[in-house]
Specification:
With about 210 residues, the protein is α+β, with helices and mostly antiparallel strands. It is globular and about 45 Å long. The protein contains six helices and eight strands, in the order αββββββαββαααα. Strands 1-2-3-4-5-6 form a six-stranded antiparallel sheet. The protein has one domain. Strand 5 and strand 6 form a beta hairpin. Helix 1 packs across helix 3 and helix 3 packs antiparallel against helix 4. The longest helix has 22 residues.
Length: about 210
């Protein structure tokens, strides 16, 4: 895990599995990632918005991995993005992983989130239990769903990190999210695969 996730280019491959990530490019010198985010369906790159993540490798050896992605600002007055991965060996040859994801938001984002939660997102939930067999909703639910999507993206990438394993990686991510369909289902499998193939091809053409 430490060897596979210490380079910023690997994180582009991870982030691209997420429905909302439309493009990802490593900035000059490997100091950051320019990530274009958009809707959960196919759209022109010109309609997406960019978040410039600073990339920091805290430590990467056989006993501990620490990677941090941070951004001061994002779309719709969002700010203070933070994605932090920590990993260390566990018993029986396994790896203990801690992943955190957080951001803050201002008035524009608050209004947009309020509208989303009152319409398309009104019945969506996260993973924290609440009440009689239910789960937490609202903004916390949104953050929990995205955190899980990123975690599953990391897991899917580690199982198939080679360039020629893109199809395996995409299929693994979608199938993993469907295990939590109550929280994570958004699109059909064929639609997801078709969208991502177009986005990865666009990524390949931009880097060639």
């Amino acid at each position: 895990m430490s060897g596979a996730l210490r380079e910023p280019a690997a994180w582009c491959q991870v982030l691209m599995l997420h429905l909302n990530t439309k493009h990802c490019a490593v900035q000059s010198g490997g100091s950051g990632l320019a990530v274009a985010v958009g809707r959960k369906f196919d759209q022109p790159l010109s309609d997406a918005q960019t978040i410039d993540f600073a990339y920091k490798l805290g430590k990467a050896d056989a006993n501990y991995l620490n990677v941090r992605l941070s951004a001061a600002s994002g779309p719709l007055s969002t700010r203070d993005y933070s994605i932090v991965l920590e990993a260390t060996p566990a018993d029986a040859g396994k790896t203990a992983v801690h992943l955190s994801y957080a951001y803050a938001y201002g008035t524009a984002a608050r209004l947009a989130m309020k509208g989303y939660l009152a319409t398309m997102g009104s019945d969506k939930v996260g993973f924290t239990p609440k009440g009689q067999g239910g789960y937490i909703g609202g903004v916390r639910g949104v953050v929990e769903r995205n955190t899980m999507r990123y975690y599953l993206a990391i897991d899917s990438y580690l199982d198939a990190p080679a360039t020629g394993q893109l199809d395996q990686r995409l299929g693994a991510w979608f199938d993993a999210t469907e295990q939590y369909a109550r929280q994570l289902h958004e699109v059909d499998r064929d639609d997801y695969l078709a969208m991502k193939h177009r986005e990865f091809e666009r990524l390949r053409q931009a880097s060639s």
